[in-house]
Amino acid sequence: MYLxxxxxxxxxxxxxxxxxxxxxxxxxxxxxxxxxxxxKERRSTYLYTGQYINLKYWDEVNKIVRxxxxxxxxxxxxxxxxxxxxxKTLLTLTSDKTDxxxxxxxxxxxxxxxxxxxxxxxxxxxxxxxVNKKLNRYITxxxxxxxxxxxxxxxxxxxxxxxxxxxxxxxxxxxxERKLSQRSVIxxxxxxxxxxxxxxxxxxxxxxxxxxxxxxxxxxxxETEKVGLTKEEIQDIEALDTLTAQxxxxxxxxxxxxxxxxxxxxxxxxxxxxxxYDGRLHYRMSKNAKLLSLKLPEKVIPILEHYKNDxxxxxxxxxxxxxxxxxxxxQDVLAKTKTATKKFNKYLSxxxxxxxxxxxxxxxxxRHSFGNIAGxxxxxxxxxxxxxxxxxxxxxxxxxxxxxxxxxDALDRVINF
Length: 417
Prior knowledge:
alpha+beta; DNA polymerase, domain 1; hpI Integrase, Chain A; 3 domains; 4-stranded antiparallel beta sheet; CB; DNA-binding; DNA binding; DNA recombination; DNA integration
């Protein structure tokens, strides 16, 4: 049926309008493009239909292709369909009360946000981590996103498809086929939740489809036991003699970490001589970029003296692990840190054997050991400062692993009769 009237679907709303028109910019063959003109606050952009006609076939008054054109019915029906789609998009954007431009309307018409895939949002997220040089997070989260894509077996999977039922099957897959621990499963869910929140913020998915929360998928970390050395065990490590040069070095690094409230290994090996002045250590944490200033304990002085002969200048690293790193390459810095940690843990196992310690001795246990010895003797607010925790709640939860006096006393009161 021939459309003999003007397109009644033209809409003007909220200073926006969408209309069919013939753009007066011919191609090389002298044909003019049939377009949808999108105007917002006097700024226009054009959505091309891919169809061109001679100027004589365009009815400017009724905004239709004249009947004299051999394909007028098909072209007018096409224009009507495109116009209806564009107007539907405009009405949706308007109902959401979003501040949008003509370019936004065009983009939403050509590439609807609802069609944006999980992978597209994930790729953008990973690119952002890489650009910001958060390489450790980039590597781990890339692997976790890879689990999702392998399970879905569909690069175009949308957020609406990643619902509660999908996630429950995915969790079973991670535990059963991938043999991941409960902690690793939770970490993967956290990445999915992060991407879901991004998608909601960007208008890709509505919050009503959010699969996390009460009566849905709840993210709860499993309780883990944090084991630290006792005061006596650390004294045994301090007293070790007949150590090789490498064992002595690793003990120095571990004790340096412990003496300074369990500094993370990446921060320890990045300390420079210039970071020490006025009897204090001043450094920026790699995890959250916080600036810290700690008094140098007396026990740290002999460790520093051990490395003074290898000092090239004030800006040199105290410990040797980062001296040959390409500091302009975040990848190389991360690789050197991982290699150093692996080496440290290997030699710490030997030190534990020599000190007759049956606990697994690693670099990270230095932090647990500080918490274990601190116990309930140091106020939580002070421990928060020493641990460099942003929230006191984090400190309370961390220190709860090492505070047993109340439960021990309660047990004794019941059974000692």
